[in-house]
Amino acid sequence: MLNPVILSVGVAAMAVFYYFQSRNASVPFQIEKILLQSFKDYKKNGWPYDVYGPISHSHRNMPRSGQPLGWIIVDTIDTLMLGYNYTTNKSNKKEFLEQIQFVENWVENDLDYNMDSEVNIFETTIRMLGGLLSGYYLSTDLNIGNPEVYLNKAIDLADRLSLSFANSPSGIPYSSVNLRTGEAIKNHVDNGASSTAEFTTLQLEFKYLASITGNKTYWKLAEQVYEPLYKVNNILEQYDGLVPIYTLPDTAQFWGRNIRFGSRGDSFYEYLLKQYLLTHEGIYYDLYRAAINGMKKHLVKESFPSGLTYIAEKPNGLEYQASSKMDHLVCFMGGLLAMGATEGHTIKTARNMNFWDEDREDDWLLAMKLTHTCYQMYHQLPAGLSPEIVVFNYPEEQRNEFEEITQLDRQNWWNSPSGDFFVKPLDGHNLQRPETVESIMFMYHLSNDTTYREWGEEILNNFAEHTAIKGNGIVEAYTSLNDCLHVPTGKKDNMESFWLAETLKYLYLLFQDDIDLTEIVFNTEAHPFPVLEIADMEKSNLTTGWGLK
Ligand SMILES: *[C@@H]1O[C@H](CO)[C@@H](O)[C@H](O)[C@H]1NC(C)=O
Ligand SMILES: *[C@@H]1O[C@H](CO)[C@@H](O)[C@H](O)[C@H]1NC(C)=O
Ligand SMILES: *[C@@H]1O[C@H](CO)[C@@H](O)[C@H](O)[C@H]1NC(C)=O
Ligand SMILES: *[C@@H]1O[C@H](CO)[C@@H](O)[C@H](O)[C@H]1NC(C)=O
Ligand SMILES: *[C@@H]1O[C@H](CO)[C@@H](O)[C@H](O)[C@H]1NC(C)=O
Ligand SMILES: *[C@@H]1O[C@H](CO)[C@@H](O)[C@H](O)[C@H]1NC(C)=O
After folding, report:
1. pLDDT over threshold 70, residue 2
2. C-alpha 220 – ligand 6 centre gap (Å)
3. pLDDT, tens digit, for every residue of 34-51?
4. What is the annotated signal peptide range for this record (predicted)?
5. Where are the domains of the chain?
């Protein structure tokens, strides 16, 4: 006879199993619902404006000319297409298709980049050019709509953005361009310096477009920024592969000494690796390797008391004190390090491949630790949502290595329950940013460890609960927060385009089983491009045209 204890344990285990099964199955459906809700609310109350407040339904366009760039619309196309591809619900599939057709029609007939307005080349490239290119890729791959609509618009936009390179003696583009006149315009502040991460975050888009069109000019323009940057500043010797966050475009010289993986620095590192993943050009892996080794040497620190691993800043140069502050933006690094280690293979497979070495093993372990830290930046907060910036606590015996956190700071700042980090009152906002769920998505698919899905589900539920806007008790839309340090959270009346382009997309892909990360590369705005075929590159003579020797 069966032992009753074993039997009841067995029944309980099965109940738990079925509970998780059904809960798991419903998560992607919950994300589809949030995505469609957010998009349809925008369509009803904000269309086709670039900036939208879901509480007041206020809206405006960004360009001076008053015309729309398609900021939210173009950024969202591929998320809708992925929803269409993966949904298992017939009514949602139909819904996604309707939205895609509506958007495509607008892009074809109403979106006009011939506008007398100055735009930032980086933001416009990653969001608009990136969105159009992945729209082209997915509409081709999934056989929905007309890919040429996206491609033609992408070419038109890229040709306008290309003019930002025209007048720079060094080859580094100015930070803005007038889309109609082609006038290239330097940054109006910071002594005219461009953010280093801005002109080094155009390469995936321009290179993918070069491979589709066979037009090598896009490739060469994007590539030409690196040689002056590396040689003029002697980055490998003087900076251990790292870069200050500003560069003077005329001379390629760095301006200031502030080194960080947060804003203005972040995607410089990201695009070194991702160019290698997209095009297999070896030089970019080498530059990435140098940067990561420099990062480990100078910036990777552990908090007190729990030893959470994070990436510190060096505001005054590598030889001076660190700042223990970390932007939420830095949380993409877990996923990046994991992709750099495995090149998109699962960790099990990657460890058996020829390229595996100690550096990659160390990168993988660091990826796990950083992703865990970023999860803690959600988990320890009252609403379970991360603030924009945290400041990590350091052990007393290391205090000379860090910018001081005073007794008064400790009293005035928000303290995490574990004591490992603080939040300054002005940094307690949450813009529904993607970087942590991005890393969680990569870590899950590369490790096959369900812990990451549990973290993702927890974060999803917190967004669903604490960023929702309700009318008559019914959820109507989702918005950014100006205060995530208290419950109820303070709502901000702005929906960032990356809520739809990135955060919901990465959450959605986290819960799909059929993701092959060796075949696609996401640009820094989560727009997926297919890994380039060597044969296509050779046909158009798309090869690396520079070296450090
Ligand atoms: C579409 O979904 C299928 C699984 O249903 C998947 O195998 C395929 O990779 C997806 N395609 C894209 C482009 O995401
Ligand atoms: C499909 O989704 C719709 C809402 O979009 C829902 O009403 C319906 O119950 C779902 N069908 C199934 C079979 O889950
Ligand atoms: C290739 O791209 C450049 C840069 O935008 C453009 O000026 C040129 O006209 C393009 N060439 C062709 C053949 O389309
Ligand atoms: C992932 O883990 C599950 C068990 O949780 C297992 O069934 C599956 O085969 C694993 N997949 C891979 C690719 O290792
Ligand atoms: C999904 O189901 C598995 C068991 O089938 C469970 O271990 C896991 O915690 C569930 N939840 C998530 C978010 O993966
Ligand atoms: C390919 O590019 C290289 C370097 O720019 C150049 O020397 C060579 O002539 C080109 N070949 C073709 C077939 O265009």
Report:
1. no
2. 12
3. 999 999 999 999 999 999
4. none
5. 257-540
Write out the DSSP string of 416-467: -TTSSEEE-GGG--B----HHHHHHHHHHHHH--THHHHHHHHHHHHHHHHS
Token digits of residue 181: 């006149």
* Closest to 389 in 3D by CA, of 421, 411, 361: 421
pLDDT digits (tens, 9 = 90+) for 312-333: 999 999 999 999 999 999 999 9
Kind of pairing between the strands at 59-60 and 51-52: antiparallel
Q: Is the pLDDT of residue 24 over 70?
A: no
Q: How far apart (Å, rounded) are the C-alpha atoms in residues 521 and 442?
A: 11
Ligand 5 atom at shortest distance from the alpha carbon of 456:
13
Kindly report whether the global pTM for this prediction surpasses the value 0.85. Answer: yes
- DSSP structure class, residue 233: H
pLDDT at site 9: 55
Angstrom distance (rounded) from CA 261 to CA 327? 8
CB 91 near ligand 2, within 6 Å? yes
384 burial level (CB within 10 Å; 0-12, 13-18, 19+): middle
- Residue 180: C-alpha distances to residues 31, 113, 123, 126, 185 (Å): 39, 8, 17, 20, 13
- Specify whether the CB–CB gap between 95 and 84 falls below 8 A: no
- Nearest C-alpha neighbor of 436 from the set 326, 362, 354: 326
524 is in an annotated binding site: yes
* Residues labelled catalytic: 123, 266, 388, 435
Q: Which residues of 436-446 are buried (b: 16+ CB within 10 A; e: fewer)?
A: bbbbbbbbbbb
The CA–CA distances, whole Å, from 147 to 104, 140, 143, 151 equal: 9, 6, 9, 6
**Ligand 4 close to Cβ of residue 448 (< 6 A):** yes
Fold of 257-540: Glycosyltransferase (1.50.10)
Residue that has been written with the tokens 């321009």 in this structure: 206
Single-letter amino acid, residue 423: V
Nearest-angstrom CA–CA distance, 488 and 491: 9
Q: Is the predicted pLDDT of residue 3 greater than 90, yes or no?
A: no
> Cα dist. 389→71, 242, 374 in Å?
25, 21, 11
CA 514 to centroid of ligand 1, rounded, Å:
7
DSSP, collapsed to helix, strand or coil, labels residue 484 as coil
From the CA of 87, the nearest ligand is 1
Mean pLDDT of 126-138: 98
- What pairing do the DSSP bridges indicate for beta strands 325-327 and 309-311? unpaired
Which strand (E) or helix (H) includes residue 195?
strand 194-195
Burial class (CB in 10 A: 0-12, 13-18, 19+), 125: buried
CA atoms within 13 A on the CB side of 444: 24
Written as one letter, the residue type at 29 is F
Q: Which two tokens stand for residue 91?
A: 């009514």
Ligand 2 within 6 A of 92 CB? Answer: yes
Pairwise CA distance, residues 14 & 20, whole Å: 10
